[in-house]
Amino acid sequence: MGRHRRRSRSLTRPPVVVVHLPPEPTDDRILRGQCWVVDGDTIVIEGTHIRIAGIDAPELDHPWGKKSKWALVQMCKGQTITARLRPDLSYDRVVAECFLPDGRDLAAELVRAGMALDWPKFSGGKYRHLETPDARKRMWRAAARQRGKLRPQSEI
């Protein structure tokens, strides 16, 4: 008859479960205020240049560039914009998801209006379903830039 050793309950430990939760946004990652529109995908809030995340709008000197800018001006005029900052940088600008006071996503509104394209590399295709049927054909320079066939103005 063999002896069985009993383990004392005090010596056994329950397994450790590690849960990784995304960090909660802190006030230093949120900017709110009136904005100044630079172009169709860039705004300035409190002196911070912000690239609107997940979209690509035409440059001002490209076809549809000024229309895209003015569409964004009309959306933001007199509104308090909330920018949820990301850790990314894009050509010396912070990247952020930007929202109107009623919760509408500025990027989604620009794509829906046909003034910007979804940029799947950065959005994961979040806005593609909102693109107007002719948007990529009309904004061929922005589409070419996304495919790496056209360098951004800031690199020239």
From TrEMBL:
Signal peptide: none annotated. It comes from the Bacteria. Residues 37-116 form the TNase-like domain. It holds the Pfam family SNase. InterPro entries: SNase_OB-fold_sf (IPR035437), Staphylococal_nuclease_OB-fold (IPR016071). This is TNase-like domain-containing protein. The lineage of its organism: Bacteria, Pseudomonadati, Pseudomonadota, Alphaproteobacteria, Hyphomicrobiales.
